Amino acid sequence: MKVLIIDDYQPLAKSLAKGLREEALAVDLAFDGEEGNFLAENNDYDVIILDLLLPKIDGLSLLKKWREKGLNTPVLILTALDAPEQVVQGLEVGADDYLVKPFHFEELLARVRALIRRKFNRQNPVLKVADLEIDTRSKRVKRGGKDIILTAKEYALLEYLARRANEIVSRQELWEHAYDWAAEINSNVLDVHIYNLRQKIDRPFKVKLLKTIKGLGLILSEGRKEKGEPG
């Protein structure tokens, strides 16, 4: 999952990004409205965290512009403006949630997770594909009741594939949702992570869940047994 933070107070934005990355989220940062608008319109984010008092273009103007253009990415307004009429205005312009500074990181994280669940229309925080279970709160992964230990990036890729279960996901989409904007997309790092993921969630089991669709991408779906296997 990938989040864009647009906030001109850099210490807060960087601290927030660090906390979200520790929760296996990819994060991009923008410190003014112009840069934030560029990133929002040229990348596919799962959630945008938006301050209102921004240089160059203010947050409300950004949000109004995005909604008029049909950009429906969930937006969480994070601001010091706490008057009831300001909250109402933000929600009416098109925000999905509104959180006032100062805030507790755990509350913001819970709101971000809720927006992600809503976006993918999967309200249960535990994602299931056949006998594979992914608890998005604890980051605990099991298959057939056995714990599977993943790295943060392996987990991020698996969670996105699970949220898109039974759909073909292109390599470009995986990059866009699991890696920061500045990541080296011409490297083989994605191939390495996918290989390691297969080794952990599929190799020890007869039924294979993660499949490559040649020329299209990857799909995580109810599995089938490999040719030559009994049953």
How many strands?
Answer: 11
**Which regions are unreliable across 5 or more consecutive residues at pLDDT < 50?**
226-231
- How far apart, in Å, are the first and last alpha carbons? 36 Å
Distinct helical segment count: 8
Q: What would you report as the Rg, rounded to the nearest angstrom?
A: 19 Å
Given this structure, which CATH class of the largest domain is correct?
Alpha Beta
Mean pLDDT across the residues is: 92
Query: How do the strands line up in the largest sheet?
Result: 2-1-3-4-5
Instruction: Give the % helix.
Output: 25-40%
Q: What count of domains describes the coordinates?
A: 2
Question: Largest sheet at a glance?
Answer: 5 strands, parallel
The CATH superfamily title of the largest domain = Response regulator
CATH architecture field of the largest domain: 3-Layer(aba) Sandwich
State which percent range the strand residues make up: 15-25%
Shape: elongated
The SS-based structural class is alpha/beta
What is the H/E order?
EHEHEHEHEHEEEEHHHEE
Do you know the CATH topology of the largest domain? Answer: Rossmann fold
